[in-house]
Amino acid sequence: MIFLAFYPLLFWALAFWQRRRWQGFALALAGPLPFIVVAARIGDQGMGLLLLSLAAIFGLGGVFIAGQPRRAPGERCLKCDYLLEGNVTGICPECGEPIERPRTRARRLHPSAPSPARAASAPSEADRSSR
Ligand SMILES: [Zn+2]
């Protein structure tokens, strides 16, 4: 019986992982199929209806989860989740949190290059229009 609780959760997690992709919708619709097969073969009509109802809830929930938006591409502030795409100041314009970026190879080879934190203090046009 506990299997009946975890089985949909597994498919919902997989549908969430593949959300907004055809695989996510395929997983969401494939998950309830065993319920439908069992409901069709079971002799008890009441139990069959119960299984079909569960399959419908399971499938609709999965489709809803699969339809959830994927996160917008681009780097985001770790503190406030502000989209930092195109930010050159090194500071989040929303909350002032310093942006931690992994040091790049080019940066290590040219330590004299201006640091992103020192490059500009005021938010640029790209920062203001990114929201
Ligand atoms: Zn922030």
Question: How would the blueprint of this fold be written?
Answer:
Elements: H1 2-17, H2 22-30, H3 33-41, H4 45-66, H5 105-109, H6 116-119, H7 125-129
The structure holds zinc ion.
pLDDT averaged residue by residue? 80
Give the overall silhouette.
Answer: rod-shaped
Radius of gyration, in Å, reads 24 Å
Range of helix content: 40-55%
Strand content: under 5%
Characterize the largest beta sheet: strand count, sense, and whether it forms a barrel: none
Number of strands: 0
Order of helices and strands: HHHHHHH
Hetero ligands: zinc ion
User: Domains counted in the coordinates: how many?
Assistant: 2
Poorly predicted ranges: 104-109
Describe the protein's architecture and organization.
It is a single chain. The protein is mainly α. It has two domains: 2-66; 72-131, no CATH class. The chain has helices spanning 2-17, 22-30, 33-41, 45-66, 105-109, 116-119, 125-129. α1 (2-17) runs parallel beside α4 and α3 (33-41) runs antiparallel to α4. It is rod-shaped. Bound molecules: zinc ion. Zinc ion binds next to loops.
Brief write-up:
This protein is mostly helical.
Observed structural traits:
131 residues, mainly alpha, 7 helices, 53% helix, binds zinc ion
